[in-house]
From TrEMBL:
Residues 1-475 form the UvrD-like helicase ATP-binding domain. It holds the Pfam family UvrD_C. This is DNA 3'-5' helicase. PANTHER family: ATP-DEPENDENT DNA HELICASE SRS2, UVRD / RECB / PCRA DNA HELICASE FAMILY MEMBER. The keyword ATP-binding applies. GO terms for molecular function: 3'-5' DNA helicase activity; ATP binding; DNA binding; exonuclease activity. Keywords: ATP-binding, DNA damage, DNA repair, DNA-binding, Exonuclease, Helicase, Hydrolase, Isomerase, Nuclease, Nucleotide-binding. One of its GO terms (cellular component) is cytosol. Its EC number is 5.6.2.4. It comes from Sulfuriferula nivalis.
Amino acid sequence: MDVKEFNHIALEPQHSVVVEACAGSGKTWLLVSRIVRLLLDGVAPSEILAITFTRKAAREMQARLDDWLRLCATAEDDDVRQFLRERAVDESQLEGKLVQARGLFEAVLTAQPSVTISTFHAWFLDVIQRAPLSSGLMGLELAEQTRPYLNQAWGQLGQRWMRDPDEATAVAMQALIAQLGLFNTRKLLNNFIHRRSEWWAYTAGEAEPLNYSLENLQTEIGVDIDVDVAAELLADTKFIVDLQEYARLLGLNTATTQKRANAIVNILAATLTADQLYQQLHSTVLSAKGELYSLNASAAQEKRMGATAQDSMISLHVVIGTRLIDTHQQRLAQASYHFNTHVLRVGTALLAQYQTVKLEARVLDFADVEWQVAQLLLNSDDAEYTQMKLDARYQQILLDEFQDTNPIQWQILQAWFDSARTSHVMPKVFLVGDPKQSIYRFRGAEAGLFDLAREYLQTYGDAHYLQQNNTRRSSHAIITGLNATFAPITDYPLFHPHGVYETVRPGRIEVLPLVSTPEADGGNESLVRNPLMQARLEENEVHARELEAEQLSARILDIEGNWVIDDGNITRTVQFADIMILVRSRTQLHHYERALNAACIPHTSASRTGLLESMEAQDILNLLQWLSTPYLDLPLAQVLRSPIFACSDEELIQLRLAKLPTATWWETLQQHADTATLARAASLLAKWLEYANVLPVHDVLDRIYFESNLIARYQAVVPAAMAKQVTSNLTELLALALSVSGGRYPSLARFLHDIQELSGDSESAPEEGMADVGNTVSIHTIHGAKGLEAPIVWLLDAGARQAPADTYRVLLDWPLGAARPRHFSFITTQSAIAEYQQPYLAHDAQHHQREDYNLLYVAMTRARQVLMVSGVTSRRSGGWHQLISAGLAGDAEGAPIIHGDVLTQRLVTAPVNISTQVSITLPADIEQAYPMGQRKVNDDTLATQYGKLVHALLAAMLPPETCSDDSLHASFGAQHEFERAMQCVRQIVQQPQLQRFFDPQQYHSAHNEYAYLREDGSTYRIDRLVVFEDEVWVLDYKTDQQISADELISRHREQLAEYRSAMQCCYPAHKVCCGLITSAGELVVVSDGS
């Protein structure tokens, strides 16, 4: 099928279409072109729903649609006609469609609502927000940072276990820790939380999910879990008689078997428990792997024993060994059952607590959003209403990257389509994807759903099915190398040979020999290393990876400026920005970054370690840490050495020598600021300490940036190629102060705590600022490079075979099309896996291998003209390097394998114009602080500061937070009048009449610093909100001791009336009461005035 016919079918608005297309074939172009054709066909913008998987992809689709519609509105007629021809508009309709196209931009911009281009989760959230009131989902928000809620659930569960260590879940947790250790136990349970959607699906509709799961496990095991199978075996008289005879016959054979015979006899004669006896027999009769020893008939053996004895010995060897192996498998199954019981008991308790924490915070996470929408459409009383709303709005559905769909997402879509089909309003569906690019199984994606959806749409939607294996992205050399690599792989049926539209563009694949560590000089082995003078020798693979990194840097310098590539209609020499480096994981990335730095090669890692771990962000966070706790020395030393102050080593040594044993660095700096640099640091730090006590975090940072001219200082010291990236990161960090926790925490300690939680959550941590970073090499993980491309791609660390699937995880089997998984259990190490789990594990390994092939496919198809492959020798040989080398008919042992063209001897038609950044010179007066106006200090500044401290301490001490005294001292101890504030807080907390507001046993739920959004968009915050069965209390803390109760009521009645009105909307079935709590611990009730 040629391109014209393909596009004609794919873009026909009246057809449902399923497109399976290879990488670089133009799937996004096709999808957005379909939207344009729908608009040209008169489909209302509000009736179009396009769903993809990432916000970035959604933004790119929206931007492309806007650009194309703008072109249609503003370009010359001939250009618009050509645009329409490329999108399969018939020549006979061209003039009429030209007129329509001119008005599309305005129509889409003014449409209310307009075209919906969204991610799955954003669309699901929109469905939830439009759900009926009876669903109970109104007012819930999406929480993208989930780790704080999970940590809170862990903390609350731990407190419960400490209060009642004999409770069932506490006992189960103790058993797991004893078996696995705390780290692996938490890892396993966190993996269960990660797989909660599958657990909900597995137990859907079951009144007792835990019992249901355990009953299924017991059925699969097929063994009575309470029977001592070892004791039963040893109570079998025939088995013991056979064992004794087996030992006698072994004694007639070789010295080795005689030794085993003596061991059996001694074991049977010993006084042992059944378990000890079984364990010793198992280790004696069977090999270390728990298998039968090799014992075959031979002439020499027959001569020693006689034919009859030999046959009898071999027969007993098999019978006894098989009985022991079967018993071992039964014991493993029993142990697996008891282990799964412990995990499920604790896991379901943790999950319930996690859900409670989120419910109290009125938030949903991504898994909740999916599951709630599935319930809305599948099982709830509101399903018909929800489906009707969807049917009434959307008539055209476009689904991008469908290979990344998970079973629950497909169930949601299928439920909608089934309902629409029954009502004869089935929407037209355009589904596009590539199962070979399914690389997100760790997030639940199932590539097989693509074929399932295709069959469904062909059956019920009369969909056309189109396949496209020709690429516009990669050169002929890349594609022939790709075909050569994957064609011989027999267990990868997804791949079919690819073609290219452009055959003349030169290209190249270069596979470098695997790097290995040179053999150590034998003479050096006897030398003793001085640990104070010599670094420890690293392991061979690590050393080899450093050599690979050096090879990478040297080769990039050789390629840059020498190789010639195509860029549209011109040819030019390679720049650093043309090179993309790909790695499988971030684990070893620091080796390569270090080598690039040493070679002065500018580079950016979009997914390196995230914004929070960039060096400039760490400098700022160290400064905030010191401002929060000024007695800490190390953060201050790091800040002084950073570009913020740029103190020299000599100045820091001078401070260290002047420091008294009992003094802090800050005290020393104030007394010994003997240089201009140190004096500037002392002056600014003193001012910033004052700001930190009275200003929110963002305002503190804003002043720091301004008064230190911070961005200019960093631009002056970083390499020119990195200046844009560093500036972007610093700007993003400033913006983060407003976005973390909604920017609602004024205390530095709370902000730093949230940042720490955020940096530990790899799914939530912000990426580095992605400004235009200029001419730099980019580094990505393969997962992060999905959707990207580059003229030159270097695939690193390709020598090792894929690591085995992680241990301490959920073992899941969810057949395609099934309503729920058919198996759900937990596994740890290989030796602890029971026989009933082995088939599921083998099936899982097949998927694991398929995804490894998919990763390689994605990596190779990022390259437009050049693919470089390198790696190190590894114990896990047989990796991608070997696959590519074998496909290209080489071994890459000594010399590189070259496939394709020479790129050095080509004509350059356009010289490269690399914009060089002029080095920044700091102005002469940069050391002087900016002039600032005088701020009038109110008479109650100290009182206000004291009141804020009391509020912060109460918020930190009262449930659900309940910080320890040590934590409070660490967070607030440096603040003015801390001890007085602590005394006030203890007096309040210990008042008997207030216990009903502070004791979790006496109320339903409570919230500190409870924020709500007003109609005008402003935010109000309630000091403490306590929810009882039939009433809600709004509590406001007041620390002014000079005001009477009547005055307090008069002064704050209007404010509390606002709170009362807002909370009455939130809790319509409750009576809302308001009260003021004074510093003396008195409760002043404020009536509603009615």
